[in-house]
Design goal:
The chain has one domain. The protein is built from nine helices and seven strands; from the N terminus they run E-H-H-H-H-H-E-H-E-E-E-H-E-E-H-H. Helix 1 packs antiparallel against helix 4, helix 1 crosses helix 7 and helix 4 crosses helix 7. The chain is globular.
């Protein structure tokens, strides 16, 4: 097993609706925001953690592969992959293998030397996404977040109950998206197809919290791999085509 290359996938991630990825460590104040967005500790600007992107992409791909029932809602493991092979679920096993190769196995997976050789090291490395510097300059160097009131409606009286104020990065915000892809000898070209399918599903689904309420709709622009334009290929991608063909 040999590392042949490390490629860089870049794009501009555009918020089509307000985005909320919670910080989780902000003290509540009377009359203040109930749920704040995560902010960079140095600049205090909102950003998108690479861990949020990785977790959402992996989750979508596991749902697409049809393995969430086998994992009982947990992260896909090599043990589940092996069980798919034993149960002769070849199409699901193939998708599971690609996911493990792209995103890695957990520390709890005890692999033999042969199994470790098959999976190899994690191919993807996600970067935190900060605001596009050119767009940020047009905003005067700072981005003003918005407060969105959320509540539930009493079905009989029609009165709004228990209002909460959610902080969001506003629609139209633009982030620099970047990840690196390790290329090992013997890697299937389908790994890139699987990654792009995950990004396309992210556009169709959403990122962050309250997606069902309309938050977190995003799109990717100017997608490149080592400077090569992938946008036309990405725009024509049909991420669920594999379900009938058994290929990613």
């Amino acid at each position: 097993m040999q590392l042949n290359n490390i490629q860089t996938l870049r794009a501009t991630l555009v918020c089509e609706t307000g985005l909320h990825i919670g910080g989780g460590d902000t003290a509540l104040q009377i009359g203040g925001i109930d749920s704040a967005v995560v902010r960079h500790p140095l600049t205090q600007q909102p950003y998108i953690p690479g861990s949020s992107l990785k977790g959402k992409l992996r989750s979508l791909l596991e749902w697409r592969a049809g393995v969430v029932g086998d994992t009982e809602g947990k992260v896909l493991s090599h043990q589940v992959y092996q069980q798919l092979i034993d149960d002769k679920k070849q199409a699901q096993a193939l998708q599971a293998l690609k996911i493990l190769q792209l995103f890695g196995v957990s520390g709890g997976d005890k692999l033999s030397a042969e199994q470790a050789q098959q999976i190899g090291p994690t191919r993807l490395s996600f970067w935190d996404c900060e605001f596009d510097e050119h767009w940020l300059a047009q905003q005067g160097g700072r981005v003003q977040t918005e407060e969105k009131a959320e509540n539930c409606i009493d079905r009989i009286s029609g009165v709004a109950l228990h209002p909460r104020f959610i902080e969001r990065v506003p629609a139209g915000s633009r982030f620099d998206f970047r990840l690196t892809v390790r290329q090992l000898d013997g890697d299937s070209p389908d790994l890139l197809d699987t990654l792009l399918a995950g990004l396309k599903m992210l556009e169709l689904d959403g990122l962050g919290g309250s997606i069902s309420r309309g938050y977190g709709k995003v799109r990717f622009e100017a997608l490149t791999l080592d400077g090569k334009d992938l946008q036309p290929r990405f725009e024509q991608l049909q991420p669920f085509k594999h379900t009938t063909q058994g290929a990613g």
